[in-house]
Design a protein that fits this description.
The chain has 807 residues and is of the alpha+beta class. It is built from 19 helices and 29 strands. It is globular and about 95 Å long. The N and C termini lie far apart (67 Å).
Length: 807
């Protein structure tokens, strides 16, 4: 059986039109754009009850008593009612990690505003919410830790009384660092802070639990990106064998990490269904999402860069804090962000000496989740702001300083100072292309000429590399209870000659039903429209850790290719027999088995197996045309995509308003399975990054009270805030993956805050302003300008507000 063409390149037929590399229109759109998607909110079962949760109104308090009216007995439940249900535990094997047991309903005390205290069930959500109003909770308020820096200090009120301090874990590394660096010609210190955000997917979290007595099986329909992991965590909490639980993810309207964890509400609904023998549904509303859901991206850095006169980095040190919230989320734990700060802060730069210490802090806020970009957005912002600060100190263009410090293509594969194994790429070239696309010299000329409306023009760059498709060794090293292994795919040739592939990954907007059908097309030549991609059901799909960490194109794509190749061998054997040709003389191509004297279609092969077995060869594989195959990349430490971003902004100093005038991206995701889908991923990620840079902030007061409970308070970028983003692709194949593809799902969200922040600082440099807190809102910009002017008036010209926190 032959699968290769004369040039040695894998052939599946019609590659240029429908296989890997083609911009095939999304198969999903036929139902999603026509309103025929099936989300949790669309589902209802006979006898269904709906859940509402009475949530804590205080950030930190002891629960003295819960007063439930008699007529609500059997409808309202507290922690004591959930006998036998275990707390959610997200452990890690990292030395020194402190475990936080998260009860599904608060037990003894509450640790953040919005923590569920009582679950109320009724025939409708509205009625359940009304019944919540009849319940009263007596609290003894405790001091709240609303700021991570204060929470980590000695003497702060303990959130978990059996801990000595409010710190989940301290992560640290040091290499080649010594005191001689203090004599470096350039020494720049800055303090940078990124604010809390919500994930804000279009569809909130939701679930329906139903216990099937005939199967003795609990089914949980839930909006998740990790069905198999949710099943494992739910089984642990409920004390059930995993075979007694089925998790189904229907259409999922965005995930961004928020759909990648086991929620207390899922445990509560599952328990209630088991207890009452009725379906139980919960659907998150937007207020719940804002005040009670997991948050993300709250980092604080104090950094010093040491460089020579030309801006070449000699060393870098950082002290970082990450606000991890009150509990460690299952399965990622509270330390994924903090640990990745330590390992990812150097980014794509060749830094010879490095020291970093990060505190994963416990606070009286909702837990953090690994939101799109997972720590890399924060570290990219911190490092890229520092690169511009070094450039200013050296009196050189930030673009030039970046070029001096980037890892060069001739150094690839390259092991970074923190042990990251960069596979392949040309980082300087991506920056050169961004320099040309943004028309750097023309922007500088425009700055010199000035704007007639009084606004100031700024130019900013940022560059990052993103480790995706993390393998077994990486997550095992982090000690996280969700260790990826060999990714599996089931492939079946159906009786009519079409193809079904079953994957454990879950699509929540990544177009997997299209791109993975293209992979099957690449191997077998079958039209993607004749391929059904089945996902999101633990009863029908092979085990997988799910969709996270920009892994699906690499891992699920590789698994689909492996399964289709094995299936091709079985198809070829039957086809060769029907063609009366030797097996090594036939080729599988264009959904046919082609021999020296003719061909047979997949439909004919399938008809023989299913309907005319008397015509099968005597030595046929009895396992037939249905199989499961596995895949793991040749190097297990992940792929490294990267991109250079450049943008031009106009800043109004009097009002603080920022307008993005131009935005360009040069990205390298290796071989692109579908360039149109990749562009869509990058556009969406860039929109989220713009939100991080300019708009989105989940603020809390000193008592731990959230200050945004509606979308009128929590600002999201819309179409009017999106610039006309221009994208250019570099395709440097990864040597370690099936087609050379790299993960790119998170990349678009990583670089915008840094690029925009640097552009704002470039615009305001002449006024002595340097912004170091995101989002860089009009108020923050305006106040920084006013402070700089006041400082200049008091001390004379040449003063600068530099490295200060603009609160």
């Amino acid at each position: 059986m032959i699968l290769q063409g004369p040039d040695g390149e894998l052939k599946g037929g019609a590659k240029a039109h429908r296989g890997v590399g083609a911009s095939v229109r999304r198969k999903e759109d036929a139902r999603l754009l026509a309103g025929r998607g099936r989300f949790i909110g669309d589902m209802r079962f006979p006898g269904q009850l709906e859940a509402a949760f009475l949530r804590s109104s205080l950030a930190h308090a002891r629960i003295k008593a819960v007063h439930i009216p008699l007529h609500l007995q059997g409808r309202a439940f507290v922690h004591a009612d959930m006998v036998g249900v275990k707390d959610i535990l997200a452990k890690t094997g990292l030395p020194g990690f402190r475990v936080s047991a998260q009860p599904s309903l608060a037990s003894g005390k509450v640790r953040f505003v919005g923590e569920p205290v009582v679950m109320v069930l009724a025939e409708t959500r509205a009625l359940a919410e009304d019944l919540c109003e009849e319940i009263h909770v007596d609290y003894e308020e405790l001091p709240a830790n609303a700021d991570m820096l204060s929470a980590a200090r000695d003497g702060a009120a303990l959130i978990h009384e059996d801990w000595p301090e409010n710190v989940f874990l301290v992560s640290a590394t040091e290499k080649n660092f010594d005191d001689s660096l203090k004599n470096a010609p350039i020494r720049v210190t800055r303090e940078v802070r990124t604010s809390r955000q919500c994930m804000a997917p279009l569809e909130g979290k939701g679930c329906i639990a139903l216990f099937d007595r005939s199967l003795e099986q609990l089914t949980l329909w839930t909006s998740t990106q990790m069905p198999h992991i949710v099943r494992s965590g739910l089984a642990e909490c409920l004390g059930l064998d995993t075979r007694k639980i089925r998790v189904v993810a229907p259409d999922v309207g965005g995930g961004f990490g928020w759909k990648g964890l086991l929620q207390p509400e899922e445990v509560c609904c599952a328990w209630a269904s088991l207890k009452l023998d009725r379906p139980v549904k919960w659907l998150e509303d937007r207020r719940e999402h804002l005040i009670a859901a997991a948050n993300c991206r709250e980092h604080h850095y104090v950094m010093t860069a040491y460089a020579d006169e030309e801006g070449r980095l000699l060393g870098f040190e950082a002290l970082a804090h990450v606000d991890a919230g009150a509990y460690s989320v299952y399965p990622f734990s509270a330390c994924l962000e903090g640990a990745q700060v330590v390992s990812n802060l150097p980014g794509p730069y060749n830094i010879p000496a490095y020291r970093c210490r990060t505190y994963s802090v416990c606070s009286n806020k909702p837990p953090i989740v690994p939101y799109r970009g997972v720590a890399r957005t924060g570290v990219c912002t911190a490092m890229e702001l520092m690169i511009d600060a070094v450039a200013r100190a050296a009196g050189r263009e930030p673009y030039e300083v970046r070029q001096r410090n980037l890892v060069r293509p001739e150094q690839m594969p390259f092991t970074s100072i923190t042990g990251k194994e960069f596979d392949m790429g040309d980082y300087p070239e991506s920056l050169r292309r961004a320099f040309a696309m943004i028309d750097h010299e023309a922007v500088r000329a425009r700055q010199q000429a000035g704007e007639t409306d009084g606004r100031r023009i700024g130019l900013g760059y940022s560059i990052y590399c993103e480790q995706g498709a993390h393998g077994t060794s990486v997550y095992h090293g982090w000690g996280i209870p969700m260790v990826p292994g060999i990714e599996s795919c089931g492939a079946r040739l159906t009786p009519d000659g079409t193809l079904e592939v079953r994957i454990g990954s879950q699509s929540h907007g990544q177009s997997m039903e299209t791109t993975l059908a293209q992979v099957a097309c690449e191997v077998l030549g079958i039209d993607p429209d004749l391929v059904n991609v089945v996902h999101g059901d633990t009863a029908m799909t092979p085990y997988s850790t799910g969709t996270w960490g920009s892994r699906s194109a690499v891992m699920a794509g590789g698994a689909v290719a492996s399964a289709c190749e094995r299936l091709a061998g079985r198809i070829a054997k039957i086809g060769a027999h029907l063609l009366q040709a030797p097996e090594d003389a036939v080729t599988v191509r264009d959904a046919q088995v082609i021999g020296p004297q003719g061909s047979v279609s997949f439909r004919e092969v399938a008809a023989t197996w299913y309907l005319a077995p008397q015509n099968l060869p005597a030595d046929i594989d009895p396992d037939g045309l249905d199989l499961v195959a596995g895949y793991r990349p040749s190097v297990d430490t992940g792929t490294f995509s990267y991109a250079a971003h450049a943008c031009v902004v106009a800043v109004a100093p009097e009002t603080g308003e920022v307008e993005i005038l131009d935005y360009v991206i040069v990205e390298d995701g290796g071989v692109l399975l579908n360039p149109m889908v990749v562009d869509g991923q990058i556009y969406g990620g860039t929109a989220q990054g713009i939100g991080t840079a300019l708009y989105e902030e989940m603020a809390y007061d000193e008592h731990g009270q959230p200050l945004a409970s509606t979308l009128a308070d929590y600002l999201l970028p819309g179409a009017g805030e999106m610039p006309d983003v221009r994208i250019a692709h570099m395709e440097t194949p990864s040597p370690n993956t099936r087609f050379g593809q790299k993960g790119i799902g998170e990349g678009g969200a990583i670089a915008p805050p840094a690029a925009i922040g640097n552009a704002i600082n470039d615009a305001l440099a002449g006024l002595g302003v340097e912004m170091t807190v995101s989002p860089m809102t009009p108020r923050r910009v305006r106040e920084a300008v006013q402070a700089a002017r006041a400082l200049a008036e008091g001390q004379g010209s040449g003063s600068q507000v530099s490295g200060r926190l603009a609160s």
